[in-house]
């Protein structure tokens, strides 16, 4: 044993720690946006959080891919709200929507299964080309063609120049053909048949939104052809659609398709999606590719049969929340099970089947928690958390000083440096993996104060053990460290295991709590190894710190001295004997 | 003053905790039975997350009418048509707020209600002016809490399995078992206290319960680490029994356990006082309360339950029973011989590999020299020789 285990070069460790801290703060200030604020959860800064719980018929876990699909769709809906910083994350089998700030109230309805309707295609599709500078130009592939003019060939996506090219980065509006827009449109508008009675139009509860919906209804749901035409011209398929989910089924509708590449003039809804009993994607038995087969409830089957009989060769549009999902052509009268054919691959077919089953979401969701926190309350919570943390730290400082006297300063230093390293990591993780600090996370950090302090305590009690055995402070440090290290490592391992399991398996706010707890545990190890131990090693060489009266180790040292004396006496006696 | 505190501080092994284990078992059994009984018969006071409903909260600082509980109740009744489940004021000072709880409201009820509350009270927000946005609300379906609980139970199961594996590898089977019993005790007692006192159970509470498991186990790990150290090579020695070694370990870590629990509970108390005082109810208060209860339960169980159980499990092993018998026999012998009072106090530092090996060699040598096949009984004769060997060691150390 050339070098005693536990013997270290303290300055080297401290330098390593300083380097780590410097690197972390450099990353905080010189990378990303340089904003040194951790990302706060909505319960600390105000905002809306909605947790959507999937409803499956059997109560089983929904397939992951459906969940991801739903996440994507809801993300689109959230973006449609036009609020910044909104997020949709998969949390266990739930989706959590968080919208910071005060604009998030509408987020509550995002998880609703969309309304699926069947509408007659009166005019369209017309290519949507609303790059602002081009919009007023007549001719060319424009949406200006009057809907009543059968001679005007529709400009469909297939003919539009940009189609087929890779999607542009910038303002390219025309995109690839919609995966579910499969039929070659046929321009054959006829007067709409009398719509069946439909449920009354819903209106949003928010008065401001209600007004918006009202004006959009007047414009785009008019039965006057000239108004429809104007609506068709002015409709911007890329803008947020106030009619989303609020279209009146009893009136005609000017709408875009889901990609925003085509516009349609649609008749009133003649059949509601609620009449669909089931929808499935199947391999096409008579041809290549995939088809979607659906069956209606009895009443729906009746309506569908009658409608298809009367409208063979025409287009029928499926709309979801006022957007056209697809507009296939009716090939023959259909009673009973219906097959929708098209150029589907399996994924497209399954998606469409899901849409037909549930509305646009592949799963049906229930809002299991919806919370709007005012900025005031969020601020108060943040303050309370901070104050609690500060008081907790102060109490620990005081107790540390009381119990460990001068060496308590090392404890305080360890805790302070621990805080100094937690902060940049929090900021960086907020940037890199979107870690948000929420109220539960604050509680996690406060609990972690105890864990960090404990590593120190374990080490110190070991030191005392060694000194009780008669060693000097100086010689007790390396031996005490070797033994304390093992205990600290195993105790932290258990603590980390607990937070890891919680993080991976739990949902909701548990995650934040578990993450901060686990994070603190790991950082605690860094601080103990690179700061606490070297500092104590340095202290062992210092006259002030190793003064038994000041170090709080006096009692143990006295016991050790006593023991040495007794041993010496005993040995003297036994030698004498 | 030098009495209890000093013994505690220096950890010289003066508290016979393991020896009185039957007392602890009885006490813990009563406690656990009461807790289980309360959970079964009284159940829990489940919060809004389990029952479902809507909660509205806004600052009590208002520009118009003072927002007292009765006035708020009146506004609610006027808009919704019936009484809310509860209206209370929470927190204090600038953070004081009014809390309304009701059955689940949909948007068509919530929006006018918020508007009416705003019109009547004009609550003032952070900006200093009344604004509608300061009214917070949360709507929870009754399944939310259940879902969190289900996930929490799954997490609990996985955690227990992993921890058992970890402990079995790191320690030994009986230690893993004892730690698990202590862990289960903590869960049951914490839940039981919630049921007994009628604290409201929220998802935060369930979360808090899980985190104290890690903490409780952490405590036990530290104690067992010392037990493991103190009992190394124990079977080859006749110095003390397993129970005595474990008790010594407990005493040596006693002040650490107390300190650790204190250090952990101090910030948590601060959290609770601030959480309740400033905000009234909420995540902070819920988490802090369950953790405080859990930390205390965890500290008690790691001291008074885990190690005694470990000792009982160990003593089922015949080897440890025989060793205990040898210790007893040796002591009986030694009692006849003149007792060297001072030397009796000194123990070989069996944590040290070199010393331990030396001690084991010595015991073997003694057994061989005495011509006894087993290393039994005659050890007492050589008692006088031992301290001499021991003295050589510290002297050597001091020279280093």
TrEMBL record, chain A:
Main location per the UniProt record: membrane
Membrane topology: Multi-pass membrane protein
Gene Ontology terms describing biological process: intracellular protein transmembrane transport; protein targeting; protein transport by the Sec complex
Record's compositionally biased regions (Low complexity): 126-137
Stored Pfam families: Sec_GG (PF07549), SecD_1st (PF21760), SecD_SecF_C (PF02355), SecDF_P1_head (PF22599)
One GO cellular component term: plasma membrane
Entries under InterPro entries matching the protein: SecD, SecD/SecF_arch_bac, SecD/SecF_CS, SecD_1st, SecD_SecF_C, SecD_SecF_C_bact, SecDF_P1_head
Domain Protein translocase subunit SecDF P1: 69-121
Keywords, ordered alphabetically: Cell membrane, Membrane, Protein transport, Translocation, Transmembrane, Transmembrane helix, Transport
SecDF P1 head subdomain domain: residues covered: 259-362
Biased composition (Pro residues): 138-153, 188-204
Biased composition (Polar residues): 218-228
Transmembrane segments: 12-30, 377-402, 409-433, 439-460, 488-507, 513-540
GO MF annotation: an example: protein-transporting ATPase activity
Quaternary context: Forms a complex with SecF. Part of the essential Sec protein translocation apparatus which comprises SecA, SecYEG and auxiliary proteins SecDF. Other proteins may also be involved.
Record-stated family: Belongs to the SecD/SecF family. SecD subfamily.
Function: Part of the Sec protein translocase complex. Interacts with the SecYEG preprotein conducting channel. SecDF uses the proton motive force (PMF) to complete protein translocation after the ATP-dependent function of SecA.
Name of the protein in its database record: Protein translocase subunit SecD
Automatic annotation (TrEMBL), chain B:
GO term, biological process aspect, one: intracellular protein transmembrane transport
InterPro entries reported for this sequence: SecD/SecF_arch_bac, SecD/SecF_bac, SecD/SecF_CS, SecD_SecF_C, SecD_SecF_C_bact, SecF_bac
Intracellular or extracellular location(s): Cell membrane
GO molecular-function terms, A-Z: protein-transporting ATPase activity
GO cellular component: plasma membrane
Occurrences of domain Protein export membrane protein SecD/SecF C-terminal (ranges): 130-315
A matching Pfam family: Sec_GG
Predominant location: membrane
Domain of life: Bacteria
Transport as UniProt keyword: yes
Entry keywords, A to Z: Cell membrane, Membrane, Protein transport, Translocation, Transmembrane, Transmembrane helix, Transport
Membrane topology designation: Multi-pass membrane protein
Transmembrane intervals: 23-44, 152-171, 178-199, 205-224, 262-282, 288-311
Xref: Gene3D superfamilies: Multidrug efflux transporter AcrB transmembrane domain
Keyword rRNA processing attributed: no
Residue ranges, annotated region (Disordered): 371-400
UniProt subunit comment: Forms a complex with SecD. Part of the essential Sec protein translocation apparatus which comprises SecA, SecYEG and auxiliary proteins SecDF. Other proteins may also be involved.
Entry-linked PANTHER family: PROTEIN TRANSLOCASE SUBUNIT SECF, PROTEIN-EXPORT MEMBRANE PROTEIN SEC
Cited NCBIfam families: 2A0604s01, transloc_SecF
Functional summary from the UniProt entry: Part of the Sec protein translocase complex. Interacts with the SecYEG preprotein conducting channel. SecDF uses the proton motive force (PMF) to complete protein translocation after the ATP-dependent function of SecA.
Family named by the database record: Belongs to the SecD/SecF family. SecF subfamily.
The protein, known as: Protein-export membrane protein SecF
Record organism: Pseudonocardia hierapolitana
């Amino acid at each position: 044993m050339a070098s005693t285990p536990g013997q270290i070069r303290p300055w080297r460790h401290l330098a390593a720690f300083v380097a780590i801290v410097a690197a972390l703060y450099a990353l905080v200030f010189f990378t990303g946006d340089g904003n040194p604020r951790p990302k706060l959860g909505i319960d600390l800064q105000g905002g809306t959080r909605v947790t959507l719980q999937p409803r499956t018929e059997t109560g089983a876990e929904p397939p992951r891919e459906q969940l991801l699909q739903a996440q994507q769709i809801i993300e689109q809906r959230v973006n449609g709200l036009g609020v910044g910083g909104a997020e949709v994350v998969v949390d266990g089998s739930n989706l959590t929507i968080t919208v910071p700030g005060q604009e998030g109230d509408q987020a509550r309805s995002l998880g609703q299964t969309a309304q699926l309707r069947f509408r007659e295609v009166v005019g369209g599709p017309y290519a949507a080309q609303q790059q602002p500078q081009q919009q007023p130009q007549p001719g060319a592939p424009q949406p200006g063609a009057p809907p009543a003019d059968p001679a005007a060939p529709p400009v469909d996506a297939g003919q539009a120049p940009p189609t087929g090219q890779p999607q542009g980065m910038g303002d390219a509006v025309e995109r690839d053909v919609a995966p579910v827009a499969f039929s070659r449109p046929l321009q054959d508008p006829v007067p709409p048949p009398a719509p069946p009675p439909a449920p009354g139009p819903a209106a949003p509860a928010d008065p401001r939104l209600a007004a918006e919906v009202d004006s959009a209804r007047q414009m785009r749901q008019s039965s006057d052809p000239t108004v429809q035409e104007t609506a068709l011209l002015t409709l911007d398929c890329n803008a947020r659609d106030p009619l989303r989910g609020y279209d009146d089924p009893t009136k005609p509708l000017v709408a875009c398709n889901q990609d925003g590449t085509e516009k349609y003039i649609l008749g009133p809804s003649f059949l509601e999606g609620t009449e669909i009993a089931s929808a499935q994607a199947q391999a096409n038995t008579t041809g290549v590719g995939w088809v979607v087969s659906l069956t209606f409830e009895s009443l729906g089957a009746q309506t569908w049969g009658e409608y298809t009989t009367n409208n063979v060769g025409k287009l029928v549009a499926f709309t979801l929340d006022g957007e056209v999902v697809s507009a296939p052509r009716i090939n023959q009268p259909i009673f009973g099970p219906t097959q929708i054919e098209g150029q589907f691959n399996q994924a497209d077919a399954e998606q469409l089947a899901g849409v037909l089953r549930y509305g646009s979401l592949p799963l049906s969701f229930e809002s299991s928690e919806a919370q709007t926190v005012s900025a005031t309350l969020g601020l108060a919570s943040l303050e309370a958390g901070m104050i609690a943390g500060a008081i907790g730290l102060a109490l620990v400082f005081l107790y540390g000083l009381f119990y460990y006297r001068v060496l308590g300063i090392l404890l305080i230093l360890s805790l302070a440096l621990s805080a100094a390293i937690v902060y940049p990591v929090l900021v960086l993780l907020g940037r890199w993996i979107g870690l948000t600090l929420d109220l539960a996370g604050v509680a996690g950090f406060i609990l972690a104060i105890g864990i960090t302090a404990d590593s120190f305590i374990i080490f110190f009690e070991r030191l005392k053990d060694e000194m009780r055995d008669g060693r000097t402070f100086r010689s007790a440090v390396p031996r005490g460290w070797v033994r304390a290290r093992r205990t600290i490592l195993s105790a932290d391992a258990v603590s980390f295991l607990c937070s890891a399991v919680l993080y991976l398996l739990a949902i909701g706010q548990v995650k934040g709590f578990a993450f901060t707890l686990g994070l603190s545990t790991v950082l605690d190890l860094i601080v103990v190894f690179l700061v606490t131990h070297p500092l104590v090693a340095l202290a062992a060489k210092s006259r002030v710190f190793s003064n038994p009266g000041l170090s709080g180790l006096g009692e143990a040292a006295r016991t050790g001295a006593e023991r040495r004396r007794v041993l010496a006496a005993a040995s003297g006696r036994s030698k004498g004997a | 003053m030098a009495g209890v505190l000093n013994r505690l501080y220096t950890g010289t092994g003066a508290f016979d905790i393991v020896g009185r284990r039957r007392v602890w078992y009885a006490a813990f059994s009563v406690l656990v039975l009461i807790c289980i009984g309360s959970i079964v018969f009284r159940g829990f006071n489940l919060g809004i997350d389990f029952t479902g409903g809507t909660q509205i909260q806004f600052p009590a600082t208002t520009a118009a009418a003072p927002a007292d509980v009765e006035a708020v109740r009146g506004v609610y009744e006027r808009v919704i048509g019936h009484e809310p489940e509860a209206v209370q004021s929470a927190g204090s000072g600038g953070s004081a707020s009014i809390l309304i709880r009701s059955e689940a409201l949909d948007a068509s009820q919530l929006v006018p209600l918020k508007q009416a509350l705003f019109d009547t009270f004009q609550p003032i927000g952070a900006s200093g002016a009344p604004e509608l946005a300061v009214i917070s609300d949360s709507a929870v379906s009754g399944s939310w809490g259940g879902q969190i609980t289900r996930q929490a139970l799954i997490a609990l199961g996985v955690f227990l399995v992993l921890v058992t594996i970890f402990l079995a590898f790191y320690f030994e089977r009986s230690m893993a078992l004892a730690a698990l019993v202590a862990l289960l005790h903590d869960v049951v007692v914490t839940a039981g206290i919630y049921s007994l006192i009628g604290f409201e159970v929220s998802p935060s509470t369930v979360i808090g319960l899980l985190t104290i498991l890690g903490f409780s186990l952490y405590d036990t790990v530290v104690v067992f680490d010392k037990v493991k150290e103190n009992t190394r090579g124990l079977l080859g020695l006749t110095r003390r029994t397993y129970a005595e070694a474990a008790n010594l370990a407990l005493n040596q870590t006693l002040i650490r356990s107390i300190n650790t629990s204190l250090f952990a509970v101090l910030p948590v108390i601060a959290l609770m006082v601030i959480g309740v005082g400033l905000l009234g109810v909420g995540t902070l208060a819920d988490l802090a309360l369950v953790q405080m209860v859990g930390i205390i339960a965890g500290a008690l169980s790691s001291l008074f339950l885990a190690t005694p159980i470990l000792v009982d499990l160990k003593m089922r092993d015949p080897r440890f029973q025989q060793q205990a018998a040898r210790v007893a026999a040796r002591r009986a012998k030694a009692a006849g011989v003149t007792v060297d009072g001072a030397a009796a106090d000194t123990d070989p530092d069996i944590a040290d590999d070199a010393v331990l090996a030396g001690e084991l060699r010595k015991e073997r040598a003694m057994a061989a020299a005495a011509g006894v096949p087993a290393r039994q009984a005659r050890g007492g004769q050589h008692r006088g020789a031992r301290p001499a060997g021991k003295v050589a060691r510290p002297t050597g150390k001091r020279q280093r």
